[in-house]
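Data follows
____________
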Amino acid sequence: MSSRVTAKQKSEYYYLKCVLEQEENGTIKYIVLERVKLKSLIVNALKQLHGLVGAAITVDVLKCEKTSGEIILRVKSSDLIKLRSSLTILNNYNGTPCRCNVKQVSPYLMSLAADSRAWSPVEVRGKQSRYYEQS
């Protein structure tokens, strides 16, 4: 009889997919920043909430998408709560009100590639979809 053993390992890092947004005239616009400016904004938010200890947290900016404004951050799992709380209180960039909308958090980078909330099982191939209703 064979048995299956699964070792649960705690992930060393967590990954966050987020966007910086600002509202102008009732419409939401994405703020696109360079990596250095974004890192500075995040460090300032950490310092504002958690002081010098928060400013010492290592946050890696893995991706800054220029078209969609999407940002992917990496942080150690022990610092995730501090980063998340700092991003929550982030409300100002260069004198304009803004907010950081965290869309996904995961211990696996690959899981950020697909959003389960936006996924649709219908894939159109030619004229017939892969999943279809029979009448």
In short: The domain at 13-108 is CATH 3.30.70.3250 (Alpha-Beta Plaits). The mean pLDDT is 86. The chain has one domain: 13-108.
